[in-house]
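ugh ok fine here u go
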Amino acid sequence: MVRGQQQPKQLPPGGADGGFRRVKAQMVTPVPDLIGTYANFASVGHSTEELTIDFALLASTGDGREVEQHIKNGIYPATGLTRVRLPFGVARNLVEAIGTQLLRVEEQQRLNVEASSAETLDNENERDGHDGSAGR
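structure:
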C-alpha cells in the first residue's frame, strides 16, 4: 500500500451472489514515520510468491576518495535501509500508483515551465516597452 493513497481492496466473497465487496483502506501513519526515510537507491527482486524491494542510501564521503576507489572496483557502497516484501497483486497496484504520481509530477513541472516562460516573456516585453498585444 502506498502511503497517502487510498486503494480499493477486495474482500473475500460474501453474500448470496458470492461477489466481492470493494472497500477503501485508510492509511494511519505512526508519528515516528511521518518524516519517512530517504533512499537514493532501490533494488528489486522476486521469489515465486512475492516481490522484494530493498531500499538503500548510496554512500559518500567528504572528499569522495573512498567512494572513487569502490567505483573503480565496480562496487558502489550502499547502506541498506529497509526491505519491503509485497504480494504480486499489491506490487502491481504499487507500480500503477507510482506511474500515476509520476504523471502528475511531470504535468506540474510542465505547467511550471510554461508559467515561468510566460513570466519571462512578459518581463522582456515590459523591459522593451511592449505590452505584448498585437496591433498598431
